[in-house]
Design goal:
The structure is a homodimer.
Chain A: E1 3-6, H1 11-24, E2 29-35, H2 42-54, E3 57-62, H3 87-91, H4 106-120, E4 125-127, H5 132-135, H6 145-158, E5 164-166, H7 174-183, H8 206-217, H9 223-228
Parallel strand pairs in A: 1-2, 1-4, 2-3, 4-5
Chain lengths: ~230, ~230
């Protein structure tokens, strides 16, 4: 049994990677990272190092041309600033629409790319780290359980019943993801989540806030902040 | 209302393009062609010319790196020869699996790429030319009605209910697609379908045979053969 993991180098996908290595062995796991024109590439540097730490095959794709017309604030193609506030604050103004850091259909595109690569390499499962906090309030509609069910059907049917999508955290909060990862000794100090590209996490963007709160809920400080500051 | 059309330069997607131009006007249509490491690029050359004929915006992507590990016979990455026989002959030996020219999850990947680009450009619909002949016998599972329903759900939900997939030929045969196209004066002599990259269609690969039969069912010879020979 071989699995491909969608792997950004952040908290959630690193925990996913740890689960698959624990379950199938490093030799049966491929980690796939995807550049998409984000304003910095620190997370890709971290992803490569973490894949080496776990001794899994690492593949990297560049899909930036797909987003060249997008105005998403995470991307080079946009002049919008990345909001330095929580998702709750942002969602109070979106009228039920996605937040400005929603990259158009990113998870769908990444899963479809993963499907083509998984089928080309004899993998029968794709893992990814979507969790319930990211789906809340429709901030990222491509993280929801409903999306996961639909994309899993599309990939299973469209692959001739050869490939499944596994989203082990789809019903969990980020704090619960971290609890699972701590039990597997995930090296969280090596991960990167911050939307800004500074030398250390900004602590102010929504993902920095989410991650700090999730570690705090587990009774610890974010190891990446203490490691990098 | 703006639409994006997945556009290979073949019979089905050119008919799709004609339908959207007829419905929304050329200024509201984007034609998207995707290279994927196929053994020749004749269809992309044709696609560009047909997009110019219809006066629509044309975008081209290169997703070949995604298929670099694939053994699909259509691709540069494979040493397999493209079969010079009909789908029916091939399917008699596949034991219910896809044919060797099935590019792993190609339609899923192309639709997901189209979704990201459509959302970045204010389109609310994606059109593509899947039809029932290609889905028959599980030759191309990513052309089936079941796949279309699932991928439409994934794209609608994952886009925050902003984008729909339209497959106007999902219940039609290729002969019926051509009948529709003839009523819209589609310039079929400009299209290219053959899997080989010669100066004229080989007439022997499965797609050449399918296309010739579909034109014959409409009482005419394939205009591309008479135009190019």
């Amino acid at each position: 049994m071989k699995a491909l993991v969608l792997f950004s180098g952040g908290v959630d996908s690193t925990t996913c990677l740890a689960i698959t290595v624990d379950k199938y062995g490093a030799e049966n796991v491929i980690a796939l990272s995807i550049g998409y024109g984000q304003k910095h590439e620190r997370e890709l540097d971290c992803a490569k190092k973490i894949a080496a730490y776990y001794n899994v095959r690492y593949k990297q794709l560049d899909l930036a041309p797909i987003f060249e017309d997008s105005d998403c604030s995470l991307l080079n193609s946009s002049d919008q600033d990345i909001p330095l506030e929580s998702y709750a604050e942002q969602l109070s103004r979106t009228d039920g629409n996605p937040v400005s850091t929603y990259v158009p259909f990113r998870n769908g595109l990444f899963l479809a790319s993963a499907a083509s690569i998984a089928l080309s390499n004899g993998c029968t499962e794709i893992y990814y780290g979507a969790h319930s906090d990211d789906a809340a309030g429709n901030a990222y509609p491509d993280c929801s359980k409903e999306f996961n069910d639909a994309v899993n059907s599309a990939i299973f049917i469209g692959s001739g019943n050869q490939l499944k999508v596994v989203a082990p955290f789809i019903g969990l909060t980020k704090a619960q993801v971290i609890a699972k990862g701590l039990s597997l000794d995930v090296p969280y100090k090596m991960t990167w989540s911050c939307y800004s590209g500074g030398n250390e996490p900004c602590g102010l963007c929504a993902t920095c806030r989410d991650r700090a709160a999730a570690f705090a809920a587990n009774g610890i400080c974010d190891p990446a902040i203490s490691a990098k500051s």
